[in-house]
Amino acid sequence: MPGTTLKLGSAKVAAVIDERYAKEPDGWRKRRLLAVKLAAKGEYTSAEVAELCGIARSHLFVWLKRVREEGLEALLERSKPGPAEGTRRGVAPAVMAALAERLAAHQFASAEQARRWLKKEHGIERPSGTVWSWLKKAMGVLRVPRPSHSRKNPDAAEAFKNGVAEKLEALGIKAGSRVKLWFMEEARFGLHTERRRVWTLRGRRPVVSRQIKYQWDYL
Q: I need a labelling partner for 139 at 20 to 30 A (CA). Which of 13, 93, 193, 219 fits?
């Protein structure tokens, strides 16, 4: 037995729905307008409209009721607005800020590692796919890091680079003098651990510390 065709029951909406639908860009609003447009024609059942629009019949009935009682504009307003830009529903901004800090410090080798950190430190449990999307929206990207020795002192390395010019000037070499440059070469033998990609901010090259042991020879 064929189902009963829908009747919108609002001549005012039926008169303007085609024009409004044609002007609306693609998105959730246009889908709602399409459902109302098909209902206004009175040629389809609720099951047919739901299938054509890719929605549940329960949603269709809710939308039609809202149009009948509150008008077409009420249909195009979300009853429950989404979270503000840069925030996540149910997650405190401080947690997202802490996640961004660890991302900038490339402390996550995988989204699963970030998921476990959120659960352990903040009691927030989300699927790995959700956490992966959070990392991407925070401008995160997976990159192979540049290795750094575990004993490297960043402050000492920076001080050496800043002091090279002063040391050269302290030699008192006259301009135009002929000089000899001596270089020391070294050979080292050891094991290199394999580097995996880590999460970091887009546009940055991460540097991670790793333990490296060698036997040396000098020339």
A: 193
E runs forming strands in 90-203: 140-143, 146-149, 186-190, 198-201
Q: What is the pLDDT of residues 82-116, one digit of tens each?
A: 555 556 777 888 998 999 899 888 889 889 999 99
Alpha helices (H) along 71-127? 72-75, 93-104, 111-122
| DSSP classification of residue 141 | E
Please tell me the distance from the alpha carbon of residue 22 to that of residue 107, in angstroms, as a whole number.
49
According to DSSP, the residues that pair with 190 across neighbouring strands are 214
- Stated pTM of the model: 0.44
Strand 207-210 relative to strand 146-149: parallel, antiparallel, unpaired? Answer: parallel
* Helix orientation angle between 11-23 and 28-41, rounded to the nearest 10 degrees: 140
According to DSSP, the β-strands at 186-190 and 140-143 are unpaired
pLDDT at 118: 93
How far CA 135 is from CA of 96, 167, 208, in Å, comes to 10, 45, 19
Decide if 96 contacts 87 (C-beta within 8 A).
yes
**Contact at 8 Å (CB) between 140 and 201?**
yes
